[in-house]
From TrEMBL:
Protein name stated in the entry: T9SS type A sorting domain-containing protein
InterPro entries found in the cross-reference section: FN3_dom (IPR003961), FN3_sf (IPR036116), Ig-like_fold (IPR013783)
Domain (Fibronectin type-III): residue spans on this chain: 25-136, 304-407
Position of the signal peptide: 1-22
Keywords: Signal
Length: 842
């Protein structure tokens, strides 16, 4: 008969007559109707909503604890103890007890369970509790149960069963074979029923046993146990030992020297209208035979007091310490099994000496899967080699030893027993703060890239990296159980490759210092983009890796900065700079300053024809003579809009100026005539000033001369008009000549033609995704060289680069098919400087 319960108002649905009432739970916790399940033997299906319990720091894994009790035995509110893990069984009476008669039937993360082993016409009470498991390694930690106010309670009564017809042929040939002083093998011949119930009765001293009843109640199934006294009682000192279709079973825990009675009852369950077996309402046939047997005494006396009060402490993810109170045996045997793989038996065999090992799984076995972890006189043991987040059973058996060293175990009393629950492995913490730094390389393929990061909780690490290329597969991820080898020099060598294009660059064990971990990568291609990931792992029991956490990043390999040197010959500077290698560099440009703050370009950029992939690049440029100390540096500009500057050098002229020049300035008229103005604070033996002009800032030609004052201590002003109209950006300087022929040069200034004011327009603005945009640039002439157009995102990512020829009107249109809506930066570079506009795409 299948019973399905619903509680929130707690409706109870039975296959026949029933009675039910409920304590209404709060709305966050309730028993409710599950999906209908097929009928099964003497069972009820209970479901509940996800119980609510607020976790505190250090706890995880919301679970439910369901406790069931027969009201005829007890009707008290169950009170689970904080920090105690309870073992459950879906067969009523087989799970751990919170109090006498209160059995745990479920303890897990689900929301429904089916309970069997119920009795007919019996009232039951069910209570569900929410709890969280602890992730802490504190010995005092454990499950944390919700307050009782969040508990749902359900009362229900099972239907009354009518007895089925007993089998016509009962079991016969009952016999008992003694195995040792506490164990017997029981056998019978089956009758014609569905199965048989083995009943064991201990006979009082002097009793013949015939007059003592062992008859089971028709219509009732009995919960059996292979340990004498642990099965359900049928009569005084009479217990169910086996229930099922077999005809033989082994009985344990008998008292040495005592006499017992064994009876096998054949039973048959009720059939439905079609003759099908309903597995309910057993009817028992009278036994044909009864067996009597006496258990022999052991080789030495059995201890009289069992060990007790076993309790877990000092727990970690793989170890647990258990303490107990000793009985009166000479020694004690501690056995452990993993509940998931246990057959329920743990006890040792008499006269058998076992070897203990505190590492679980390495000692002797008393039963399949039950290992001896200690054999000695102490009252505690620390068990290791356990699995994280796993339940174990532990029992302590007292024993004495005879003169020949054979042990007699106390099996007729319950041993000290406890559940052991290891803590879950902490959530792994991934490595963090991944950074890339660069050293100054001394040739193209020998630059070092420094990668550093803060370790996570792994014990080892491996570094994977690859160059980012269009259409390439994702970065390879390591597989648990595979240990990857590496090249010792951490370089991008084919021998270090794994997967498609991924390289294993480093693998090692973390140091114990907790400091940042640093590795150096070799042979990265200058300026190329790479993706890299740090994978951490721990080693399992076989020394194989289990990968626990990772941190990825993308970076561009370092570009090399120019290294600048210079010298003065007759106050004329000559600059020389070298670059170890360059990638996608567009031009060099020389900058000068008199205060090391305001730097101005000296002429247009010096084009870079192609990438340098093998050796250093060296360039030398002579400049105009200087009359004051001057700072110089060199810019190297790349096609993606990034630039690097060289070191700054200072060059100082070697003799004082014959003329103290105050300033040089210029204006451009509407007719594009340049007027140069300059003044002096004092002059000594000055002959004349020559005004020189240049289109590139390097090569100058004279355009006019102005006589000087000779010798003067007063401020003098001079003026000269360039007879040649300006057609593009033009540089001017003064060439001052003394009466003895010595000469000096001023700093250069630049002037723009009036009509060449650059105007940049991008339209339509806003534009529409999938359409086209156009660029208009005015104010240049045919001699202005090339126009470079760059389209970037606001974060600086280069999306497109276009090179156009300079004209008075430069026009260019491009498709927006692959542009997402947003704001984009349009940059135009010309000989007249850089110009910017924003484009909004909707």
């Amino acid at each position: 008969m299948n019973i399905i319960l619903k509680a929130w108002g707690l409706l109870l649905f039975l296959c026949c007559s029933y009675s039910a009432y409920a304590v209404v739970p709060p709305p966050d916790t309730a028993l409710h109707l599950p999906v209908t399940s097929p009928p099964s033997c003497n069972q009820v299906t209970i479901a509940w909503t996800s119980a609510t319990a607020s976790p505190s720091s250090g706890y995880h894994g919301k679970r439910s604890l369901l406790v069931l009790q027969a009201v005829s035995a007890t009707n008290a509110m169950p009170e689970p103890e904080q920090g105690i893990s309870y073992i459950s069984s879906s067969y009523f009476g087989a799970g751990q007890q919170l109090a006498p008669g209160q059995f745990v039937v479920y303890a897990d993360s689900g929301q429904a369970t089916t309970i069997s082993g119920l009795q007919a016409n019996t009232e039951y009470r069910a209570d569900v509790f929410a709890y969280y498991d602890s992730t802490s390694l504190d010995a005092a930690s454990g499950p944390v149960y919700s307050p009782l106010v969040t508990t749902a309670t359900l009362y229900f009564t099972t239907p009354d069963f009518s007895s089925s017809t007993p089998p016509s042929l009962g079991a016969s040939g009952a016999s008992a074979s003694i195995v040792d002083c506490s164990t017997a093998q029981l056998t019978c011949l089956p009758g014609n029923g569905d199965g048989r119930l083995f009943v064991i009765q201990r006979l009082p001293s002097g009793a013949d046993g015939v007059s003592l009843s062992t008859e089971p109640q028709s219509g009732q199934f009995y919960f059996p146990n292979y340990l004498y006294g642990q099965g359900q009682a049928v009569a005084p000192d009479t217990y169910a030992m086996y229930l099922g279709p077999d005809s033989t079973a082994t009985l344990y825990g008998l008292i040495p020297g005592e006499r017992y009675k064994f009876v096998a009852y054949e039973y048959q369950t009720e059939r439905d209208g079609t003759g099908g077996n309903t597995c309910t309402n057993p009817g028992y046939a009278a036994p044909v035979d009864t067996a009597y047997f006496t258990v022999p005494r052991c080789s030495t006396t059995e201890p009289l007091v069992a060990a007790s009060s076993a309790a877990q402490s000092d727990t970690t993810t793989t170890t647990a310490r258990v303490r107990w109170t000793n009985g009166n045996g000479v020694r004690r045997l501690v056995v452990v099994n993993q509940i998931a793989f246990s057959n329920g038996l743990m006890l040792p065999q008499q006269n058998t000496l076992y070897q203990g090992a505190t590492a679980f799984g390495q000692g002797s076995q008393t039963q399949p899967g039950t290992f001896v972890v200690y054999a000695g006189q102490d009252s505690s043991v620390t068990v290791s080699n356990l699995e994280p987040d796993t339940y174990y059973q532990l029992a302590v058996y007292e024993y004495n030893v005879d003169q020949r060293g054979k042990p007699t175990y106390l099996l007729s009393q319950a041993p000290a027993y406890t559940l052991v629950k290891t803590y879950p492995e902490p959530e792994p913490v991934a490595p963090s703060d991944l950074r890339v730094n660069y050293s100054v390389p001394f040739s193209y393929n020998q630059g070092l890239t420094q990668v550093s990061w803060k370790p996570g909780t792994g014990s080892h690490y491996v570094v994977f990296a690859q160059e980012v290329r269009e259409g390439q597969q994702a970065l390879y991820e390591p597989v648990d159980g595979i240990l990857y080898n590496q090249k010792l020099n951490n370089d991008f060598s084919p021998a270090a490759r794994v997967g498609d294009k991924t390289y294993i660059l480093s693998r090692s064990t973390y140091s114990s210092s907790g400091a940042d971990t640093i590795v150096y990568l070799r042979n990265l291609t200058i300026g190329h983009v790479y993706e890299l990931a740090i994978f951490e792992y721990v080693l399992d029991g076989n020394g194989l890796p289990k990968y626990t956490g990772s941190i990825p990043m993308a970076f561009r390999a370092a570009r090399m900065e120019p290294v600048l040197q210079g010298e003065l010959i007759n106050d004329v500077p000559t600059l020389t700079w070298t670059v170890g290698g360059h990638y996608h560099a567009e031009h060099f440009r020389i900058f000068a300053s008199q205060d090391n703050t305001q730097f101005l370009p000296l002429g247009p950029g010096i084009p870079i024809a192609q990438d340098s992939s093998v050796s250093r690049v060296a360039l030398t440029r002579p400049l105009s003579a200087i009359t004051v100390p001057t700072y110089f540096k060199v810019e190297m500009y790349h096609r993606d809009g990034q630039w690097l500057y060289s070191n700054t050098i200072l060059l100082s002229p070697g003799k004082p100026l014959p003329v103290e020049l105050l300033r040089l300035s210029g204006q451009v008229s509407e007719a594009n005539r340049a007027t140069l103005n300059w003044s002096t604070a004092q002059e000594k033996n000055s002959a004349y000033f020559s005004v020189e002009r240049s289109l590139d800032g390097l090569h100058f030609v004279p355009v006019g001369r102005q006589a000087a004052a000779g010798t003067s201590t007063q401020q003098r002003a001079y003026r000269l008009v360039d007879p040649h109209p300006l057609e593009q950006l033009t540089y001017y300087r003064l060439h001052q000549v003394d009466q003895n022929g010595a000469a000096t040069y001023s700093e250069s200034i630049s002037l723009q033609p009036a009509r060449h004011t650059l105007q940049l327009k991008v339209w339509p603005n806003p534009a529409h995704a999938g359409k086209q945009a156009s660029l208009h640039l005015t104010g240049l002439d045919h001699q202005a060289g090339l126009v470079q157009v760059y389209i970037r995102t606001l974060t600086g990512q280069l999306l497109h680069h276009k090179q156009l020829q300079a004209f008075p009107l430069v026009e260019w249109s491009w498709s927006l098919a692959h542009y997402a809506p947003g704001v984009y930066l349009i940059e135009v570079q010309t000989s007249a400087g850089r110009h910017f506009a924003r484009l909004v795409i909707e």
